[in-house]
Each structure stands twice: as structure tokens, then as C-alpha cells.
Amino acid sequence: MKQYTVAIVGATGAVGTQMLQCLEEQEFPVGELKLLASPRSAGKKVETPWGEVVIEAAAPECFDGVDIVLGAAEDDVAKALYPEAVRRGAVVVDNSHAFRLDEGVPLVVPEINAGDIASHHGIIANPNCATIIGLVPTWPLHQLAGVKRMIVSTYQAASGAGMPGMLELEAQIGAMGRGEEMPTPRAFAAQLASNLIPQIGGEKFEGFTSEEMKLQNEGRKIMHLPELRVNCTCVRVPVLRSHSESITLEFERDITLEQAREALAAAPGVKLVDDLEAESAHDRWPMPLDTSDQDLIYVGRVRRDISNPEALRGITFWCCGDQIRKGAATNAVQIAKLLTE
Predict the structure, then answer these.
(1) Does residue 129 have an active-site annotation?
(2) CA gap 338, 63 in Å, rounded
(3) FRET label pair with 324: which of 154, 159, 191, 296, CA 20 to 30 Å apart?
């Protein structure tokens, strides 16, 4: 089997660290590994399945001889470095927002549109975490009945703000438990512990935030549905990792609950957990605790949308998925594996 020189940009962050683990889990054919980060991390040594690797400060010359780049850096770093990586012969799978909506850059969820990878010109974009988690279970239902409208509320974990967000939530919970003064919020606009923050991202369109518009704009591109209508509200919740979403779909054609459940149970990347009468709560509905540290999107609470006047054309469900894994790192490594095949 051919082996590849792989570079991870943003290797010391939450997603970059998870990418390294996913490479091992998915038995990626790594011949040589390069870990790239900010200058303050340069020189640190990391033990990997492929030997000890010294972290380098990310710079254009780091991409010489690299076959595949996994990007876990911010937009500004992505825009500055990844075109350089492509010019030096690498293919980039980028987790930032920098190129997602660019024409000519495939935006890929392997369970949905793996074929789009073939049209890349050096950069393949990894979608937003909430987009991935919501669309993986939406796709099999769309194939049955043709989705035309989505109403979504997301309940997004602290992990969406990376390691700083998770550390901040842990520090706040610890301070509450010890009866100490609450640390000043830095990763979030307000205290997250014992609270909800109903804004993720800045205002983008008529009162909707940038995070809320991603589901519509990215969903249209991924599912090849330019007319898809999405109304989304994104909320930050005091959960460490694993995003949850409440999704209501309106379809072009009739779909029964039995058809919906059968499609979800058979869909790749999905686990149906939907039994309100089950003895254990873990078998009744998806929860962030159960979906963390694994790659499936759990789906439950599948029911009819009783507000839809077309009785057989509306389905509501609840889903949870690990934001760091399938919402980011796992999806990127899955794309990279497709490149090797």
C-alpha cells in the first residue's frame, strides 16, 4: 500500500489533536507525519504511532514534499498557507470556514456527497460541525421524500470554541462547586456554566448569526439543493462536547414514520436510539454523554410534525454527535482516506 506524507496544521488544538488520533484509528497509510502549529508550540515533541515528531511553526516551506494536509487552523491561517501548500503539490482538507462556499472547492460529508471530491483543485472543505451533525441524518430522509425546508435549533457544546471553550467551562463548574468567585469569561460572551448563550457568531443576515446561516448555505452546497430553506437558531449550552439538534423537516413527498425510522436505522454514520418505553434512559433518546468520543450521529424522538398541514410531509427528530470527532476531525480524515482510494 502506498504511504503518504501527512501534515496537520493546528496540531496542538482540540481538533488537530483529534485528527492525529483519527489517523491511527482509521489506519491511515501515513509514511511521514508533520505537526505544524503556532511559533509558541514549535520545538515541542509529540509521541505518535509513527515515532516522535517535533512540532514546527507553520510556514509555506513546511509543505514541501507533503501529500495531504489536514487543516485545523483559523480562517486567516488557512487563507495564508493552504494555497501555498497546493502550489507545492499537496491536497488540503480544511476544517476552517475560509473556502467552504468558494466555487470550485468541494464541501464534503462522505456519507452524502463523496463524489464531489473528484472535482477538487487542491482544496477540499470540511463543513461546519453543526452542519455535519444535522445533515448526516437528514440525508437518508431526503433521499426518501425530498426535503425542501428545515427548522433547526442547535444546542452546541463548549467544544465548538476549541480547547479554550472546554477549559473555560470546566473552570467555571469547578469554581461553582468550590463556592469561589466565577472566572471572567473569555472564550464566550457570558458565563456558560448554569447558563445558555443564544448567539454563536456575529450577525450575518436579518438578525441571524453567521453560525445559523451556515446550515442553510452549506447544506445547499453539500446536498445540491440550491432552493433549500433553513431557519436555524444556534445556542451554546454548558455541555463539554457533543452538539445536539432539534430538527423539523418538510418534504416534497409523503413519508411515514415507519419509513423514516427504517431509513435512519440503515443509514451510514447514524444510530437510531428511539424508544420512549425503554428501561434505560440511554436507550430512549440520544444524549451528549452517550455520543461523545465516538463517530456516529445518534437520532431519536422521531415523530410527526403535527404543525404541518400536509400531515404526511413533516418529520421531527432529535440528534446528537461529537463535535470534535464527526463534526470536525473524523470527517476530515474520512475525506483524506477517500483521496487515497
Answers:
(1) yes
(2) 21
(3) 191
